[in-house]
């Protein structure tokens, strides 16, 4: 991968071509984003319930099953047959949204609930990708 070593603000005008002085670095997006390849899966966010932590509709979620869950982690869980992306409050057994329009959800003993993994990264695509398709995680 070729990395262009510049930082540009949205208001920049009239600068030299960034490709004129690029460096080739031994950087792999797989290595950068995925720490435990055999325990990691990728999902796509759906809805606006996590927007206050920077996860928006259509974002790509990198979910690691290997890392230990900690209180207030962003997780992907199977909650009563639906995949959800929420903040887990392990102390109060709650699933929290990062949007004031959504109420906390109590995890009851009778609920079917399992944590699928911790969201360790999220990626926003600014143009649609033909590789991304449903299902999304809400």
Q: What's the gyration radius in Å?
A: 18 Å
Count of runs of 4 or more consecutive helical residues: 1
Quick check: average pLDDT?
A: 86
The low-confidence runs, each spanning 5 or more residues with pLDDT under 50, are 1-9
Work out the helicity level.
under 10%
**Adjacency order of strands in the biggest sheet:** 3-4-9-5-6-7-8
Assign the structural class, choosing from mainly alpha, mainly beta, alpha/beta, alpha+beta, or little secondary structure: mainly beta
How is the biggest beta sheet arranged? 7 strands, antiparallel
Order of helices and strands: EEHEEEEEEE
User: How many E strands?
Assistant: 9
Apparent shape? globular
User: How far apart lie the N and C ends?
Assistant: 32 Å
SSE inventory with pairings:
Blueprint: E1 2-3, E2 23-24, H1 29-33, E3 40-44, E4 60-64, E5 74-79, E6 82-89, E7 94-96, E8 105-106, E9 113-123
Antiparallel strand pairs: 1-2, 3-4, 4-9, 5-6, 5-9, 6-7, 7-8
């Amino acid at each position: 991968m070729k990395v262009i070593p510049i930082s540009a603000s949205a208001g920049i005008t009239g600068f030299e071509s960034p490709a004129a002085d690029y460096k080739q670095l031994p950087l792999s997006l797989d290595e950068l984003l995925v720490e435990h390849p055999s325990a990691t899966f990728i999902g796509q966010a759906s809805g606006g319930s996590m927007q206050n932590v920077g996860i928006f509709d259509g974002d790509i979620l990198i979910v690691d099953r290997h890392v230990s869950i900690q209180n207030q982690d962003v997780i992907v869980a199977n909650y009563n047959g639906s995949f959800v992306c929420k903040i887990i409050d392990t102390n109060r057994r709650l699933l929290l949204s990062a949007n004031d329009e959504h109420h906390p959800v109590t995890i009851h003993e009778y609920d079917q609930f399992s944590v699928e993994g911790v969201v360790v990264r999220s990626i926003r695509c600014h143009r649609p990708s033909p590789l991304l398709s449903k299902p999304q995680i809400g």
